[in-house]
Specification:
Blueprint: E1 5-9, H1 15-25, E2 29-33, H2 41-49, E3 57-59, E4 65-67, H3 69-79, H4 94-115, H5 128-149, H6 164-172, H7 179-185, H8 187-197, H9 203-209
Parallel strand pairs: 1-2
Antiparallel strand pairs: 1-3, 3-4
Helix pairs in contact: 1-3, 1-6, 4-5, 6-8
Length: 217
């Protein structure tokens, strides 16, 4: 049995959240970059592990495969509570954490599935561009709800308690609708993102994954 976690991912995607979580666990882990939209041996390997062809896909030390970022985060929290990826069992913050973890994954994430490639879901005669525009507007509504739910006291989403929710926020602030939208519309989320990126354990990782994006203001 190996003692290393292996993450298949794509820089700047949701796999960055799991990469950051692994960094915080201090477990030994490796990374394999996969362009999941391009036919290649790397994509074939990904499909063999995860037929959906999605990242993150995590190979555990016993070679079991994990997918779905929320499930991976909860597993890593169980194995590495010192990483503070979630509030401990019995914490008064645990219900809030679980609610918003599932909100992000069940409500916000699907907007990217459908809006990034609208032609998959509607033929061109049915105006796929309009579908993408409507979904983006809906995503903005969801992000406003998430911003309102962030603790006013800060510095983290749950207030004084850091969690994987902050990793999600930091990554999503680099996605559409873009940082210029977040600054006036969702300032709490953008402030959280800035604090996450400044954590010494995560600064280099975020720079590597988002080196094509302007620094957070």
């Amino acid at each position: 049995m190996r003692d290393t976690y292996t993450l298949l991912g794509a820089c700047g995607s949701g796999s960055t959240i799991v990469a950051a979580a692994l960094e915080l666990t201090a477990f030994p882990w490796g990374y394999e970059e996969v362009d999941y939209a391009l036919d290649s041996p790397e994509r074939d390997r990904l499909l063999a592990l995860n037929p959906l062809g999605q990242v993150p896909t995590l190979i555990l030390p016993n070679d079991e495969v994990m997918t779905e970022s929320a499930a991976i985060i909860l597993l890593l929290h169980d194995r590495a509570p010192h990483a503070e990826l979630a509030p401990p069992a019995g914490s008064a913050l645990l219900p809030r954490f679980l609610r918003w973890l599932m909100f992000i994954n069940a409500e916000i994430y699907p907007t990217f599935t459908y809006a990034d490639h609208p032609q998959r879901w509607l033929p061109k005669t049915r105006e796929p561009e309009r579908l993408a525009e409507e979904i983006l507007r809906y995503r903005q509504q969801l992000l406003l709800q998430l911003d309102a739910a962030a603790s006013e006291a800060g510095p983290w989403f749950l207030g004084k308690t850091f969690s994987a929710l902050d990793l999600y926020v930091a990554v999503m602030c680099n996605w559409r609708p873009g940082r210029r939208w977040f600054l006036p519309q969702a300032p709490r989320l953008l402030a959280i993102a800035g604090r996450v990126e400044q954590r010494p354990e995560l600064n280099a990782l975020f720079q590597a994954h988002f080196d094509h994006v302007a620094p957070l203001e």
